[in-house]
Amino acid sequence: MKKTYKVEIDCAACALKIEEAVKKIDGVLNASVGFVTQKMKIEFEDTADINLVIDNIIKRCKKIEPDFEIFV
Q1: Global pTM?
Q2: Three-state SS string across the chain, please?
Q3: pLDDT digits over 44-67, tens only?
């Protein structure tokens, strides 16, 4: 399943770091982050618990960029 979320990211370098980190989370097949568009596209595994994956994304991304926000 693919979903697009509005995000808040402060810099392009952080967007790249966040994209790479999200791709490594269990339940995520692929991800892309657009700094200019402030959007994150995530492809979830079919068996993934989306709420749990989103929680993991938030935790990991806050470590990279404390001001990171995802609007679910």
Answers
A1: 0.93
A2: CEEEEEEECCCHHHHHHHHHHHHCCCCEEEEEEECCCCEEEEEECCCCCHHHHHHHHHHHHHHHCCCCEEEC
A3: 999 999 999 999 999 999 999 999
